[in-house]
Amino acid sequence: xxxxxxxxxxxxxxxxxxxxxxxxxxxxxxxxxxxxxxxxxxxxxxxxxxxxxxxxxxxxxxxxxxxxxxxxxxxxxxxxxxxxxxxxxxxxxxxxxxxxxxxxxxxxxxxxxxxxxxxxxxxxxxxxxxxxxxxxxxxxxxxxxxxxxxxxxxxxxxxxxxxxxxxxxxxxxxxxxxxxxxxxxxxxxxxxxxxxxxxxxxxxxxxxxxxxxxxxxxxxxxxxxxxxxxxxxxxxxxxxxxxxxxxxxxxxxxxxxxxxxxxxxxxxxxxxxxxxxxxxxxxxxxxxxxxxxxxxxxxxxxxxxxxxxxxxxxxxxxxxxxxxxxxxxxxxxxxxxxxxxxxxxxxxxxxxxxxxxxxxxxxxxxxxxxxxxxxxxxxxxxxxxxxxxxxxxxxxxxxxxxxxxxxxxxxxxxxxxxxxxxxxxxxxxxxxxxxxxxxxxxxxxxxxxxxxxxxxxxxxxxxxxxxxxxxxxxxxxxxxxxxxxxxxxxxxxxxxxxxxxxxxxxxxxxxxxxxxxxxxxxxxxxxxxxxxxxxxxxxxxxxxxxxxxxxxxxxxxxxxxxxxxxxxxxxxxxxxxxxxxxxxxxxxxxxxxxxxxxxxxxxxxxxxxxxxxxxxxxxxxxxxxxxxxxxxxxxxxxxxxxxxxxxxxxxxxxxxxxxxxxxxxxxxxxxxxxxxxxxxxxxxxxxxxxxxxxxxxxxxxxxxxxxxxxxxxxxxxxxxxxxxxxxxxxxxxxxxxxxxxxxxxxxxxxxxxxxxxxxxxxxxxxxxxxxxxxxx
Length: 776
Prior knowledge:
Number of strands: 26
Helix content: 40-55%
CATH architecture of the domain at 5-195: Alpha-Beta Complex
Strand content: 15-25%
Mean pLDDT: 91
CATH class of the domain at 5-195: Alpha Beta
CATH superfamily of the domain at 5-195: Nucleoside Triphosphate Pyrophosphohydrolase
Radius of gyration: 28 Å
Number of helices: 28
CATH topology of the domain at 5-195: Nucleoside Triphosphate Pyrophosphohydrolase
């Protein structure tokens, strides 16, 4: 007996705990499927093969023995997703079983999920099916004789122009399985967009997107570096280039192929040149400033050749296909299987030992599927006895070729540099790349005291939008600004004072807060996780163990901040801030608040005790909403901290008005990054809260001002709200807060449209002439 196992879903597509085991109706057609008899909601895959050169779809003719729509023309390939099976693996399996075509995962583009609800056979067959719709794009038709048909399922295949097929569906032609074009019409819309390309319109759109970034040149004086340090700098920059290669792969598995293809064809036309320029900013096909909407499609992607995807046919070399990427940016980037959901991950996690759980939820591992991997003895340590398809693998193995090269370069640089603290950092980081243990190298980074300032490795978790667990690789190379660094010692030295006085119940306050070293640098090169808006400062490391033991360190990128102030914040203030308060916007206030923002990442709740007595961390409890909440906390508590330091006489009272107005202008700068980005979300939350409390005032001339009589209390109330949510590890409260306030309200929309109309840049895109010279 052949059996199938189905996950039963809710009518909104969520998995239930119910799994039905049923006889396969194709082997035993007289046995009625319980799923279809009772109308249970379940999952399936639809795979469409589209031929780019002829603009045709492949259709299969259903077997005459099928219990639904026998003998009619239908989707290229389709089938149920068995209980616990991944969607993508199911799509690959169905295509191979039904048509004899074996393709790798990068050939499958998931377009959307389509709910199909219909009743057949006098009410005996009720189909409530959530279909994961995939598109496979091939350049040329596959010869019909190359298909190997599964006789129980398929009686024939043919090609049909997509517009003709759409018209047949609209007419409800009896020879074709009917589909509701109100839902399934999205497939034809996507194909039409790709077939009917308006080159001029696309070029204009990309030009408009590029104009939102103001080009700036960032460099610094290298004369204080000796010859050995300058030689080491060249090696470190080469290692940073390797970091870039890793980050491209972390975003999406076919992203490196897309990058190479766009670069190779950049000079083919003006449109291709624009695609390449915008890709270099975003480092992916999704636009950071447009809520991660795609500006490229799979039709723009790399062409790959597969000679053995089907049985051999004389005179035919094989399949050429487009390396696919999804229309919607995957929330888990390339850290998790694209078809993994939270329920599957959580179920697998519960089967692991404590050590395996730490690896699975840690910063430095990738979650993969056994069914996709060629497992060998080297992976046995990462596998559990669980029946789950998931396993975790450390970065040191996943990115081994890249990390081996970067490690060698850092060891060579470490042998050359004259600073002992930098020497220790470079060697320890080189070892961490291969061992996957970053503790010692992060301590060495915190202790760094060198003219040549280096940050390199996996740190921030913004790209993991599922859980916020996985760290992206990045590199920042700069020259330390000794005078500016000395001027900022006040902030790092007073972290304990700020922690003790936070607007937060004492039970949630951290007991062990250390002074935070602050380094100011002039950036000369960055790579990796710096796609879209440019980083102005960072507070690291994120490892809760180190934060508890040693605190954090901050790095301020002063020349980046100066560029953003001149090219973005000043023009924003001229348009959005009321004439009476416009003069309060100054670089000192902007820079000082950025310092306090980074300081405040290091205070407040980190390691927490939950109501049931378990110890955890804010990051692990808030998961996917952690980044936005943490950015909002650092911002608003940073503003509170400035006022606190003023009242204690540690900062000049003359800064009071300018810091609030500069903050108001800065709100519009960050919100323009988009509400899918953590900083943009956090800023929208703060702006709308302060506006609701009357601290920000909207005027008839569409400008804004600060009500100095209300701003202090409003800042403190929001600080208390966010800090308390973090202290409790209350994800539900965090989600409600973000859902309520992370919106584009009327006044905010007016201001953003005004800035758009006068073409104020949203961010900068830097060039690094020193790096170019050294790398060449």
